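Archive record
______________

***
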Amino acid sequence: MIKKLTSHLDYGMFAEIALLIFAAVFVAVLVRTLMMRTETTTRHAMIVMEDAQQHYQQQQQKEQE
């Protein structure tokens, strides 16, 4: 019964729908990224550096103890 049901399905339509969903999400992320303020972008870029500085400071404090 399942073989009969799946043999009549057209999977091409699902591929087109998946492509449209992907394109819509991609465009939404692109627009949000381009509309982001410079301050926010700079703050996001500094997250890694802040974490590295905190880790380095903690290591120095442990070595001094």
About this structure: The CA atoms of residues 17 and 23 lie 10 Å apart. The chain has a mean pLDDT of 85. Helices lie at 2-7, 12-34, 38-64.
